[in-house]
Amino acid sequence: MMKMLVPLAAVIVLIIVxxxxxxxxxxxxxxxxxxxxLAFIIFVAGMIWRxxxxxxxPVPFRIPTTCGQQQSLPWIKQDKLENPSxxxxxxxxxxxxxxxxxxxxxxxxxxxxxxxxxxxxDKWLWLFAIVFHYSFLVVFxxxxxxxxxxxxxxxxxxxxxxxxxxxxxxxxYITGLTLTAGVLFLFLRRIVIPQVRYxxxxxxxxxxxxxxxxxxxxxxxxxxxxxxxxxxxxxxMGLVTLNPQIPQGIGSIFYVHLFLVCTLFIYFPFSKLVHMxxxxxxxxxxxxxxxxxxxxxxxxxxPVKVHSYEEYEHEFKDKMKKAGIPxxxx
Amino acid sequence: xxxxxxxxxxxxxxxxxxxxxxxxxAIGKPVVKPDPRIDTPAIQAMEKKQCVESKNAMKTxxxxxxxxxxxxxxxxxxxxxxxxxxxxxxxxxxxxxxHCHSNKKKFCDECHNYMAVKPYCWDCHIxxxxxx
Lengths: 330, 132
Fold this sequence. Notes:
The complex is a heterodimer of chains A (about 325) and B (about 130). Chain A is mainly alpha-helical and about 325 residues long. Chain A has helices at about 1-25, 30-55, 85-100, 100-105, 125-140, 155-160, 175-190, 195-200, 200-225, 230-240, 250-265, 275-280, 285, 310-320, and strands at about 110-115, 115-120. In chain A, strands 1-2 form a two-stranded antiparallel sheet. The longest helix of chain A has 29 residues, at about 30-55. Chain A is elongated. The mean pLDDT of chain A is about 95. Chain B folds into two domains: about 1-30; about 35-125, no CATH class. Chain B contains six helices and two strands; from the N terminus they run H-H-H-H-E-E-H-H. A two-stranded antiparallel ribbon of chain B has the order 1-2. In chain B, strand 1 and strand 2 form a beta hairpin. The longest helix of chain B is centred in the middle third of the chain and has 22 residues, at about 55-75. The termini of chain B are far apart. The mean pLDDT of chain B is about 90. Classes of the chains: A mainly alpha (about 325), B mainly alpha (about 130). The interface between A and B is large, with 41 and 38 residues.
């Protein structure tokens, strides 16, 4: 229970801090300018640091997790996606992993039926992971309208599709709902399935609560409590043009939303969320299984002093002959 | 660093994505803050320059009000709106709203373009003809 309550309390504290900071202390400039810039710098620098750190780790041998027939004799059919042996095949495998979460698609459920272990397909995690990630991506891209002066047509098309059903005014964005639903499912999964609950840590709950709070504050702002959205864009454009300013009368909930997003950005490179970059650098995914075709030499091999049998025999030939031990070379 | 070529390309793509707003705004047209005008003849002629509701309410809630008006008129046949100050208005975009705000380009479009919002009012209503 504590594993869940601590991150929940943390998110509530974040909300209270930003509310109090803006409402009581009048720190709009801190929450609207200083923290967003800090968050952006920490996020970008943190991500680069992580990736370079990964790049420095040697991966001398091919360790892809394979689950298909590897390349063998010409008459044995290779499973090129599950066990790639060339760069192109690995690339295709990575595309499927990054865009379609192929390894989650293989998620299994293990159950005991009459004393026998039974494995069954379990696609729910894959489905909601797809829904969650793609919704978040669309929500993220949609926000570009606050950060550029002349909004590209692509964003307009995306918005039109996202509000396709034209429900209410402002039009309801489908991804706003699906993102919230996705986060809720990923949270419920952690508390309903006993095995998953057992291995869940505060670091698993915190991002879920944080993203949930971000989604809810965003939805509240757009549809219910309302903020002065033109003033919001004045603020964000001030940030983008490096000419920051704090417009009057935006409404505190905007600063709560912004502070939570900043927290997410700062937290990102130092937590499990960094799998955004990590998926590209997973040696178990991005390596071709060509160990039988190419020799991979460990770069930090210690130069071992070898004394081969040939040399040994050469050295002790006379003694060996005297003792009647057979030798290979006369 | 191993595979530094690929890693640097990856970081480059990442930077290209996250820095998009900065360079896109820097090379694009200068950003002009919206300045909706209320200097139409109809508004100038008013003694008390007051919209249907308060300015703040109109600013944040006009879209919801228009939506409610549409539902009331089109679905319920209810044509009159009693404002908070007791005045009664004919619920009509073209006859009430656009009577005063006859300058769509300098009023509606100012903020809508700035916020990249495309309301679908003019899918059904006839857009007012204005000189550029």
